[in-house]
Recover the amino acids of this structure.
């Protein structure tokens, strides 16, 4: 093995703060052990938690030593499997999610990942599209099904519906049979309506606590980091309804504040699940769910990608291309679109 085969490109974070702590580096290529698969990464994505962790929030408290490689999502090709007859054999095109900083992140050319976090990638999606699915989709899916237990006919309100998690949540809630109200900026109203929301409230025009009432489940993707949006979202619920708060920047008295209003509230953190991602792949390939990728940037432009997320510059997701594409997606986008019933 020559030196090039022992190393890889990666974007590292050298400390807490801004873009001055991000740099591209040549680092040792990781080795997969036990049940891990080693994936050659063709694409990844940026999530808000990556930006928060870089700044010192998010999961930064778990970082014991810098530099670190961030990034949760990936699409790529298995180059080492745990054993010869493993379900994720060498050469399999896969997508999945990992959990930095406990494990190495995906803003790198190679990543070792527990096999339970990985599934064959949707055939209808490009590598960049597939890499934008895992964390955001799993968050939306688990919030609405595992925690909210959304049933047909229930009223569901999704705050910040034009973002990565939000744009999946609108579609999933509709697929579950809910009556969906969503909020976004005025410029994104048509985009969110097209995802399937029956009613869209522009939060920069109307105050959500007055415009939205009587919901069974409210999915809050903002928290109290801006204009006490999380606290105000409690007023959107019917008595006994549930607020699910995704941002780590929820607020300390959330549960007590909810109880005082006769509603329920819980924080939420996603769980990696290859089995759920395998089910998701079928939904994407049948056109039941779609992913919106607002921008695709190369790894060397990771700083720009992070800043897009920090400033909430786009809709849906932002992807990073890292290595060579694994394989072109099947040419059935038109058929998938025809099957869309959101």
């Amino acid at each position: 093995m020559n030196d090039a085969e022992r190393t890889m490109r990666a974007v590292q974070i050298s400390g807490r703060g801004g873009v001055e702590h991000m740099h591209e580096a040549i680092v040792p290529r990781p080795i997969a052990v036990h049940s891990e698969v080693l994936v050659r990464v063709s694409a990844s994505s940026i999530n808000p938690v990556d930006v928060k962790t870089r700044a010192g929030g998010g999961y930064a408290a778990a970082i014991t030593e810098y530099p670190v490689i961030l990034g949760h999502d990936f699409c790529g090709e298995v180059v080492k499997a745990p054993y010869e007859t493993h379900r994720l054999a060498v050469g399999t095109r896969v997508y999945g999610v990992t959990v930095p900083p406990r494990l190495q992140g995906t803003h790198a050319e190679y990543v070792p990942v527990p096999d339970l976090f990985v599934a064959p990638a949707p055939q209808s999606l490009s590598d960049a599209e597939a890499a934008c699915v895992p964390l955001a989709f799993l968050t939306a899916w688990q919030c609405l099904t595992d925690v909210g237990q959304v049933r047909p006919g229930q009223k569901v309100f999704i705050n910040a519906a034009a973002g990565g998690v939000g744009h999946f949540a609108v579609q999933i809630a509709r697929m579950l049979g809910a009556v969906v109200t969503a909020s976004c900026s005025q410029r994104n109203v048509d985009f969110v309506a097209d995802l399937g929301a029956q009613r869209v409230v522009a939060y920069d025009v109307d105050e959500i606590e007055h415009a939205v009432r009587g919901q069974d489940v409210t999915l809050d993707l903002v928290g109290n980091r801006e204009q006490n949006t999380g606290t105000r979202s409690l007023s959107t619920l019917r008595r006994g309804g549930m607020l699910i708060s995704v941002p780590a920047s929820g607020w300390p008295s959330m549960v007590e504040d909810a109880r005082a209003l006769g509603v329920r509230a819980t924080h939420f953190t996603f769980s990696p699940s290859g089995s759920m991602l395998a089910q998701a792949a079928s939904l994407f390939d049948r056109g039941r769910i779609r992913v919106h990728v607002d921008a695709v940037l190369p790894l060397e432009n990771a700083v720009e990608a992070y800043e897009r997320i920090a400033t909430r510059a786009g809709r849906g997701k932002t992807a990073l291309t890292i290595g060579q594409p694994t394989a072109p997606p099947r040419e059935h986008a038109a058929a998938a679109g025809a099957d869309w019933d959101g």
Remarks:
- Residues 332-342 have pLDDT under 50 and may be disordered.
- Residues 156 and 217 are 5 Å apart (CA to CA).
- The longest strand covers residues 36-46.
